[in-house]
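Data deposition worksheet. Section B asks for the primary sequence of the deposited chain exactly as it was used as input, without tags or linkers unless they were present during the calculation. Section C holds the resulting structure in token form. Section D is free text for depositor observations; keep each observation to a single sentence. Incomplete worksheets are returned to the depositor.
Section A, Depositor: J.P.
Section B:
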Amino acid sequence: MAHAHTHITDLSRSTIRRLILSIGLTAAFVVVEVVAGFFANSLALLTDAVHNVTDVLALGLTLWALRAATRPASAGKTYGYHRAGILVAMVNATSLVLISLAIFYDAYRRLIAPPSVKADVLVGVGVAAVVVNLVTALLVRRGSQYDLNLRSVFLHLMGDALSTIGAVVAGVVIHFTGLNWLDPLVSILIGLLIVWNAWGILHESVNILMEATPADVNVDTMIVDIQQVDGVRGVHDLHIWSITHGLRTLSAHILTDDIPISEGTRIQAAISELLNYKYGIAHVTLQLECVDCIPADLYCDITANSHSH
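Section C:
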């Protein structure tokens, strides 16, 4: 067998520092919102403070998962702790959905009986909240396009920034018009946006945990590409899955003629290079077999007792 390894072990210390800074900023602002909420007798500000507590928890879980992913593989966990980030992404996304449901319920109550809103306090604290949420979101944005865990917390923070922007706009309009029902209406629109983003994270997390083929990989095209490598006579027992969003793996049996080991090594190297370059699959396990040695089913049934590897 041949293995092409490129494990993700280059987690920068700056990422850890940025997460710690984000946690500190968000936690400090929670205190500010609680004080302002009691001072202005504002349930909205106190509710947003609770919301920001979930941000602190989400950032803390993300920090834990990133640290865990750097732990080396062992006999008990041969792939290491990379999946910790996927589990945290699911927790973050699920919390977003639950928070949105709470927002919808509260907005419904407020639409029925719109309470009086202290627009000046809402605008003032809302502007500060926008700044804090944007700063913390930008701190964790770097690397979020490659890491599902970071992306989930980034979307979490951006959702908060959008919600506070909506609150500020609503506060300004309410100040001049007295239309208190705008506050819950904005909350509903933002909640729908949060659910949309969270659903994408949940969908990808479940696919990774189910070891589904990455969505952007066309298996039929890949098979054709592999079979065009000189010396390859066929492919079977193919498996493609993701350990994390950016770490993909593949295993397959490659049919060849009865050739020397040195020639087989060349074929394995050529296939590994193709898969890494074209499909971003850097962890490849290939087993060479002679043509007609074994049934060549493309996908094996691992539950079948009669089919061993």
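Section D:
The first helix runs from residue 13 to 40.
Helices lie at 13-40, 43-69, 84-112, 119-141, 148-177, 182-209, 219-227, 261-279.
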